[in-house]
Design a protein that fits this description.
In the C-terminal section; belongs to the class-I pyridoxal-phosphate-dependent aminotransferase family. This is GntR family transcriptional regulator. With about 475 residues, the chain is of the alpha/beta class. It has three domains: about 5-65, Winged helix-like DNA-binding domain superfamily/Winged helix DNA-binding domain (Arc Repressor Mutant, subunit A), CATH 1.10.10; about 90-115 and about 365-470, Aspartate Aminotransferase, domain 1 (Alpha-Beta Complex), CATH 3.90.1150.10; about 120-360, Aspartate Aminotransferase, domain 2. Helices cover about 40% and strands about 15% of the residues. It has 15 helices and 16 strands. An eight-stranded mixed beta sheet has the order 4-11-10-9-8-5-6-7, with helices on both faces. Strand 12 and strand 13 (about 400-405) form a beta hairpin. It is globular and about 75 Å long. The two termini are about 35 Å apart.
């Protein structure tokens, strides 16, 4: 991101947060130049960019003023899925989304990929190269089934920020968070069992349950406070549910952070019905506010929470380094890990461990949190500017995923097919439901650099959305 783009993003964020009100005069070019230590031409370019985005308006001999804005879209209401066990579908649509990952010709607005272009990740590259030059046979050999001990120690140390107190021996390294979730599910469930999930929920978890022959009950979920504990309690009373799977921190795809009181209530509810909790915390360290939110695992008094996470969203998905802290299910998880993949590749584990140990990880996290929060402000402005008025938009508290809800008759699956002809791909909401619900919703990624290309993609998405609504969905 250039200096003028960075300044434009900062000003857009201030406008979004209401620090500059509609119709208010903005600081002069000379004043901003002095305040931010940039040239006058840089400030002028930033103002021109904001003018193109219709966020500000110039007035002759008076300067720049905040433009009148569309009203901020409301947040999505409590979801209302079918609350009975269902077989999971949508695999073909998930495969279609995954198949375009390697295509540089497609603008992937719906992916769950972080920004891996930042300079703060360079020490990781250097460590990967250094390890390769060592030609140490241990890097090409089988490792302990538990994972590299130094990495497990660093993970235990990092977990203190989330309120957890466990040691390296409580951690099992996995091939990404996806495997952590998979072996956790297999450790507590069998074919034909029933699992409760948030609705909408991560499509990877859904497809894992599908592959294991497990049925799902989707529980109504609020885009601000999380899974409905009242509906979950009713489901526990009606059905022999074996586990509940939740993403309480920086939820995928809604972006909420579950309030601490509700986290404690969820733990109590699971204790009362003796049900396992599988916690996906892969986005938790990307919360915009610090300290980061506590995990359910930190409130777990009897070992029923299986905490799953990875470096896939905070560092790079290609590392394929994740972990699970399985509590009372440790032996089952370890055996399932053995029959699932055996040990995890050593070199990525060593590189990640050194990156953390040398003190690079926390500065990197701070930079990414700041960037994603700025990106969210810009993306929210674009969505408000280019999308129809009758939509609902989530208010993420961390991570880099936004959920957009359109009128009931809208079909995001059909829209995605149209957009792919123009080199743009979205994630239709139906991917995040066992039964294909939420076809009128879509998930947008705001992690990637927000430049003219991404703005053009959002403009195209908004125009195509409006046209589809005019055509009846």
């Amino acid at each position: 991101m250039t200096r003028y783009q960075h300044l434009a993003s900062l000003l857009a964020e201030r406008i979004e947060q209401g620090l500059y009100q509609s119709g208010e005069r903005l600081p002069s070019v000379r004043m901003l130049s002095g305040e931010h230590g940039v040239s006058i031409s840089t400030v002028q370019q930033a103002y021109h960019l904001l003018e193109e985005r219709q966020l500000i308006q110039p007035q002759p001999r008076s300067g720049y003023f905040v433009a009148p804005r569309k009203a901020t879209p409301p947040v999505p209401a409590l979801t209302r899925p079918v609350q009975r066990p269902v077989e999971i579908t949508q695999w073909e649509s998930v495969l279609e989304l995954l198949s375009s990952r390697g295509s540089g010709a497609v603008m992937q607005l719906g992916s769950g990929i972080p920004d891996i272009s930042r300079s703060t990740i360079k020490p990781l590259w250097r460590e990967m190269v250094r390890l390769g030059h060592l030609q140490d046979p241990r890097l090409l050999n089988y490792d302990s089934l538990y994972g590299v001990s130094m990495l497990r120690e660093q993970i235990a140390r990092l977990a203190v920020d989330s309120g957890c107190r466990f040691n390296a021996d409580d951690v099992v390294i996995t091939t990404g968070c996806h495997e952590a979730l998979s072996i956790s599910i297999r450790a507590v469930c069998q074919y034909g069992d029933i699992v409760a999930v948030e609705s909408p929920a991560f499509h990877g978890t859904m497809q894992t349950l599908r592959g294991l022959g497990i049925r799902v009950i989707e529980i109504p979920t609020d885009s601000v406070s999380g899974i409905s504990l009242e509906a979950l309690e009713l489901a526990f009373e009606q059905w022999p549910i074996k586990a509940v799977i939740v993403v309480p921190n920086c939820n995928n795809p809604l972006g909420f952070i579950m309030p601490d009181a509700r986290k404690r209530a969820l733990i109590s509810l699971a204790q009362r019905f003796d049900i396992a909790i599988i916690e996906d915390d892969v986005y938790g360290e990307l919360a915009f506010d610090y300290p980061r939110p506590v995990t359910l695992k930190s409130l777990d008094g009897d070992g029923r929470v299986l905490l799953c996470s990875s470096f896939s969203k905070t560092l790079a998905p290609g590392l394929r380094v994740g972990w699970v802290v399985p509590g009372r299910y440790f032996d089952r998880v370890l055996h399932t890990k053995y029959i699932n993949t055996g040990s995890t590749a050593v070199q990525p584990q060593m590189a990640a461990a050194e990156f953390v140990r040398q003190g690079h990880y926390m500065p990197h996290l701070r930079r990414m949190r700041q960037q994603y929060q700025r990106n969210l402000s810009v993306m929210t402005c674009w969505v408000r500017q280019y999308f129809p008025a009758n939509i609902c938009v989530s208010r993420p508290q961390g991570g880099f995923l936004m959920w957009v809800e359109l009128p009931e008759n809208f079909d995001a699956v059909r829209l995605n097919r149209r957009l792919q002809e123009h080199g743009v791909q979205i994630a239709a909401g139906s991917l995040f439901s066992a039964s294909g619900k939420y076809r009128n919703c879509l998930r947008i990624n705001y992690a990637l650099p927000l430049d003219t290309h991404s703005e053009q993609a959002i403009r195209l998405l908004g125009q195509a959305t409006e046209q589809a609504l005019n055509d009846g969905g």
